[in-house]
Amino acid sequence: MPNLPPLSLYIHIPWCVQKCPYCDFNSHALKDEVPHVEYVQHLLRDLEIDLPLINGREVRTIFIGGGTPSLLSSSAMQMLMDGVRERLTLSPDAEVTMEANPGTVEADRFSAYQRAGINRISIGVQSFSPQKLQRLGPYSRPGRGGPRRRTGRVAVAAQF
Q1: pLDDT at site 86
Q2: Which residues are the signal sequence here (predicted)?
Q3: Which of 123, 124, 139, 153 could form a disulfide with 101 if both were Cys (CB 3.0 to 4.6 A apart)?
Q4: Vertex 42, ends 32 and 23: CA angle to 5°?
């Protein structure tokens, strides 16, 4: 068998608190509760279907995007990452990134994500300009970058 390159894995969490006016991604504003466990079970089933295509190759990077992946409960994130590790070979130094939007994170949840194996956070700061944030809607809350700066402090405190 030829020497095949390592893999990268993208995992999509499609829910958001609100659909941002600039976003073209497959994402949906929450209408009810996120179906945490059911969705993770479906993701892992999809991964099972694709396993024959992987041929035992190592995964070097995982990116969990969306939507707003930080809306996924810490227990569901643990279940997801455990399921991925059970099915795939991750490089010992694999970079596992999760998008997080300001206003949807808590210190204990960041710590739990880290225990699940997330080792990098990508914080979705759209702007620090109050005028631009005002146009993006109430979720973006202008004013001294409160949620954005708090999210950065929480991520640093959790050692991301």
Answers
A1: 97
A2: none
A3: 124
A4: 55
3-state secondary structure the chain: CCCCCCEEEEEEECEECCCCCCCCCCCEECCCCCCHHHHHHHHHHHHHHHHHHHCCCEEEEEEEEECCHHHCCHHHHHHHHHHHHHHCEEEEEEEEEEEECCCCCCHHHHHHHHHHCCCEEEECCCCCCHHHHHHHCHHHCCCCCHHHHHHHHHHHHCCC
> Which of these, 96, 92, 157, 155, lies nearest to 124 by C-alpha position?
155
CATH number for the segment(s) 7-157? 3.20.20.70
Greater confidence (20 vs 137) lies with 20
Residue 63 tokens, joined: 């990116």
Give this prediction's pTM: 0.79
Specify the range with the lowest mean pLDDT, choosing from 32-36, 75-79, 132-136: 132-136
